[in-house]
Amino acid sequence: MARDRVLFGFHALLARLRQDPRSLGEIYVEAGRRDGRMQDFIKAIEAQGLRALTVERSRLDGIVGHARHQGVAATAAPLALTHSVDDLLDQLAEPPLLLILDGITDPHNLGACLRVADGAGAHAVIAPKDRACGLNATAAKVASGAAESVPYITVTNLARTLRELKERDVRIVGTSEDAGATVYQSDLLGPLALVIGAEGEGMRRLTRETCDLLVSIPMAGVVASLNASVAAAVVLYEAGRQRRAV
Questions:
Q1: Fewest CB atoms within 10 A around its CB: which of 50, 100, 178, 209?
Q2: Cα–Cα distance between 122 and 39 in angstroms, integer?
Q3: Model's pTM, two decimal places?
Q4: CA separation (Å) from 71 to 44, 50, 77, 118, 192?
């Protein structure tokens, strides 16, 4: 099995360990770290019949590419998540709930959005191949395991993908500061794709024009907008609330 990803951080590695321990290759732990969290991690991997290689911190820094690894890293094979919007929709037995990211280039934001999508029950996160950061090791760490459970689908032409979703009766709802209705006043039931734009810039013009509906998030303070992942959480959880209330 080819292993071409590096995972790091306790959350990301434990999530992969729970989901598919055999997809992990070499597992590395920092030689100087022997606290309770590290001991629990080592026990968890040994319970799966795996073993960790003890290495110096400098080697871990080199494997990961930076020092923010919490003392653990591993090589891993990519999981078999769908990478096609059509395949995803064909597999679903319930109305789709999708998160569309238009212009999110920070891997920390992407990781947080994946984590939110997993928690809210979204079926996939979709983003354009351009103006997007890609699912790298930093995004996977911030996602705390959600990168292994939520399909991240990149598309060549986002506006065309949105039109294709509409042809399959998926409503496109975009978030905008100047929308007339708030997310709490809007119907978010049925097949739905929620669009979050880049911080500051918002959605691109063509993305905005393709939306069936624009909604705003009420802001009671002095700031004009929320971080992209926070905005995603607000709209996804409101859509989930409405679905559960039916």
A1: 178
A2: 34
A3: 0.73
A4: 15, 17, 20, 25, 40
